[in-house]
Amino acid sequence: MADEADNRQAFRIQSFYCSRMAAPIYAHLCMVIADRLQPDSAVGRRVLGWPGEPTRDAAPLRLIGGLHALVRAGLDADLASVFSGAVVEDDAIATILSRTLARHDAWLLPWLDGPPQTNEPGRSAALMVGLLAVAQALGPRLELLEIGSSAGLNLLIGRYRFDLGGTMIGPADAPVTIRPDWRGSPPAPVPLEIVSVRGCDIQPLDATDPVVAARLAAYVWAEAPERQARLGAAIAMLRGRGVRLDRADAADWVEARLAEAQPAGVARVLMHSVVWQYLPAAGAARIRAAMMAAGERATAERPLAWVMMEPDRATARQLVRVRHWPGGDETVVASAHAHAAWVEGGAPAGSDDRIDLPDAARSDA
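Predicted structure:
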């Protein structure tokens, strides 16, 4: 069980990741909270007395998501000055934070109840690099199965347009073009056809509901207006045509999907992004076991692949890993910013390329 020192340290860890991801306002706010948060509000007491693992539970991002929601709702002008970067002095930020908690304690408490569900469409760019590698190895026709789909915005991956360092993928008339800052050599253009997409989440969100859309927007960092614009455009795409998103436990769902008949000439692909650390250890073990067993059954006519974008503590990046069967070949095809603001081809030096992912510090939402 964490103590107060551990709970404060979680905000320092989050500050480090924010600074690495070009979010200095959030990095500074996390440090002020780490050093100056007091147990004189219900929110303060709950955060400082967090009973679980605060970093794994994303406690800092739960609180900051709630604070950002206050700002976006126009309920706290003083706090808005912190989120805009207009107020930068530690004492002033600490005073505003204390006042905010005194005014909005009850309003903020529910934001601590569950982890942030940051459904970032930009991550589709990193996942697409993995899918291109799968198509190159196994053939162009892919059936996608995503776990941890949240509101399903990455289930739109076949409807987005991508510019991956000049390699163009997806419909030319797509309403959303995802164009990360590409580093290194661009991926080779290969034929790719996504024949079906399906996802699951333990608590799926309906992003077409204005209340849910506002919640998702609160988890988009204030320093990333381009992400806000893309989120809105992606939600508009969902309103126009939805996706197949199931409410299910990830392990149960993966086992069920892998047991279904697979069309000949189509590669079945499990994919996920920044999900693995949320899974219970037993559930993660079941998914690994199910994939290994399905891999043993895979044939050239009915192949299997696993594409993931998950954090690597050794490099403080997200790694895009690909494994495919028959054969079980595994590689790191790219690394990325947590929201895929940039993507770099290949494996970074010192990365951990095991498919058995380690627990990772919460860095991304």
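Summary: Confidence is low (pLDDT under 50) at residues 355-365.
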